[in-house]
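Anyone? Bumping this.
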Amino acid sequence: MNRRTMMATAALGLGLAFGGSVQAAGMDKVKACFVYVGPVGDGGWTYQHDQGRLALIEAFGDKVDATTFQENVPEGADSERVLTQMALGGCNIIFTTSFGYMDATNAVAAKFPNVMFEHATGFKREHPNVSTYNARFYEGRAVQGHIAGKMTKSNKIGYIGSFPIPEVIMGINSYYLHAKKVNPDVELSVVWAFTWFDPAKEADAAKAMIEQGVDVIAAHTDSTAPLAEAAKTPGVIGFGQASDMSAYKPSPRVSSIIDNWAPYYVKRVGQLLDGTYAQADAWEGIAGGEVEIGEITDAVPAEVKAEAEAMRDAIGAGTYHPFTGPINKQDGSAWLAEGQTAPDGDLLGMNFFVEGIKGDIPQ
Amino acid sequence: MDLSSINPAVLIASLMVASVPIMLAAIGELVVEKAGVLNLGVEGMMIMGAICGFIVAVNTGSPVAGFLGGAAGGAVLSLVFALLTQVLLANQVASGLALTLFGVGLSSLMGQGFVGIRPPLTSAVDLGPLADIPVLGHILFRHDPMVYIAIAVVAGVWAVLRFTRAGLILRAVGESHEAAHALGYKVTRIRIMAILFGGAMAGLGGAYLSLIRVPQWTDGITAGAGWIALAIVVFASWQPWRVLIGAYLFGGISVLQLNLQVAKVPIPPEYLSMSPYLITILVLVIMSSGKGRKALNAPAALGQNFHASR
């Protein structure tokens, strides 16, 4: 047993001894820290998380120190170092804002039982001080799919996937299902970029799609590059991802999914301040305000816009679930029966395409 | 799988665009190596060009000024290399690698305030009726000016190296610096000028990435293009026109791999993404095995420092 594992074990022991300390009494001042996968200026995913951080300062003023954040932290071993440093640096709550920090977050959380960890989009909560939070992006993808199916002239729509993880796959499925519903001839091309943030690669992927006749592009990566590429070809449209990306209005950006993390961040830090904080697994969508649909521009015909907005409202009201049966898996086997809606467990572990999507998910 | 959806004309047209940055950087490095200097800092100079060009273009609103700024940025960084290797006689391999690391870091620092900004757009050259020729018009005559400038630079370098006195002197310095020195040529001065040219071309290639191809600034935007440019020089066995072919080949692979993905060819995308680098390694291995440098046509004094006192 080397020194490091010994320290870890000792810390773990301490953590067990004071297991109840997770529901600590209120605090006077909270230091909230953030780990970002891209730069704040990406105009998408990381930008929105940083808006949430700024909302904390706005909401709590002197009672919260939310000035600590680190950008461009690679997923993997580096993130563990950054997290350890933050925990040692006196952070009370650390938000790790990308799927790939999952294991690192849990590993570091084991060593610092008195620091709260909040991991975005993950599903592992191995220690009492790890909470996860996510947003139901697939609800927004349903609205985009509807617009895509109505707007495409070539009947070819595209989706730039980042990594083949459930969060992305469920977005692809939702997007395709709703495009197919209004346009049975629609075909979906998926390109895996294997990155969250690499504008050059994202632009190249969009370009390759456009060259093959794709005229509606949805991106599950963090930058505005796919929209910048779409802007070069008239008639090609796309969607803002994570942030409104309003610089590309009214076209190519015809609508967007906006992640609004501020309410969640304010709620969690508030709970830490007043002592009601507890481990949680949050997954809000349009109804909870975490997923917002950005303005649908005039590039979309009024009736399509009205339908898309009606779908948004139905999802928000809980009367419509984007994954409502009958839905078959890609191989033709049944997934959801008539009228059945997808259980959350199925969604969180989703590793299959629905029937009609061509191509395989890289393993 | 639906290969028919790949339009060859469009593919070739985008291959020409994708190969511009590596072509410019490679032709610059070719001149440097022809003068007997091995500058492994191409990646660093490219990325400096990318950020300097971006900053200038955003501040002036002019893409032309941006490209000039990019070339200047690459050249200024290459001056550091020239100082280290030509004046202080430091090891060229180590200095080149250091230059890359330095360039990547410095560009990241300089780019702090420029993430997420849109640069001014560069429009395509209007070639009038030429652009309307079926197929050929789409392949050849609808590009931005830099595509043509890059080819012109290759042609220019070829002509200068082959037909002019200056080219002869440059090659003489690269083949035997002592003989060139004995004939009265200023070896160090000629090499510094070659290094500056290489830096400027690499910078221009980098600026193309941040101003036209992406167009955006992001850390590490060159993503290994500089190393591919170095490989192309070896691949081309130090001959300008082969640089053009090499650049099209490497650019073509990166374009093709995304197109194959869209066409749903059942090859895992990981293999396709790594294919340009695999081929780079393969080319380097094939080129450097066999009968040694002579067979490769490498400049005889490549990588050797020169001091007049010896």
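Late reply, but here is one note on the structure posted above: Chain A has two domains: 8-136+260-284, 138-258+292-348.
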